[in-house]
Amino acid sequence: MPTSPRAGDPDAAVLAASVGLTFADPELFLRAITHSSFAAEHGGEDYERLEFLGDSVLSLVVSEFLHESFPQRPEGDLTRMRTSVVRGGVLADAARDIGVPDLVRLGRGATRAGDRDRASVLEAVFEAISAAVYLDGGLEAARGFILGALGSRLRPEVLLAELTDPKTRLQEATQARGLGLPSYEVVSEGGPAHERCFMVEAVLGGRVLGHGSGHTKQAAAQAAAAEALNSFE
To answer: Which of 55, 123, 201, 227 is catalytic?
Structure first.
């Protein structure tokens, strides 16, 4: 049953429409973009429960897509491809692509801290929106949103590259030693619009393992992983 909006709330249906979504219960979308800092200041629910559900919905949709798209690939390959798609940086970039940073409802402190474009926040909101779409319209609606938002990240050549590239090898090396997963942080970007240059750090447990640069974030991350592999090995 649709929830009743509180006085002063923005038009949730309009916000959802800004990212191409239509809800029977638009308040689900409003909850999906509400950070805990905003809820603490203004009341209401934040996105954390939806984030929990969205993680599983996202994994199911991507797993199903990979299972159908690569019928000859073994489990290990499918797992590595799925990991490459659902990791935080990829989801944060997908969230940026659909305009999530402009929509996230943050408290004053979180806004001052720069959380509006923080990768962990954007990843969480993307997962929460996935769950909201699922609860409102079912699995088919969630599948349409997730696959559409991920877009070119699901191209076969992109996914297959993850099986042998430096990022995959670094991930396998760190996991084999029980060290967890490395992350990739964009530390700078510059250059003209037609020739952007990104600098990325490969980070593990708070320690920078490698640096890399490239004309795309992905290329820079690959270079950082390659440098990290040299020092790691």
So the answer is: 55
Residue 27 is among the residues annotated as catalytic for this protein: no
Helix axis angle for 88-97 and 217-232, nearest 10°, is 170
- Provide the whole-model pTM: 0.70
Q: Which amino acid is at 39?
A: A
Catalytic residue check, 127:
yes
Kindly list the averaged pLDDT for each block of 10 residues, start to end, along the chain of length 233: 44 85 92 95 95 97 97 91 86 92 93 90 96 97 96 89 82 85 91 82 92 88 88 63
Residue type, 67: H
What is the C-alpha separation between 193 and 199, in angstroms, rounded?
A: 15
Distance CA 171, CA 81 (A): 12
Half-sphere exposure of 101 (CA within 13 A, CB side): 14
Q: Which domains does the chain have, with CATH numbers?
A: 12-160 (1.10.1520.10), 164-232 (3.30.160.20)
Q: Which of 127, 136, 201, 227 is catalytic?
A: 127
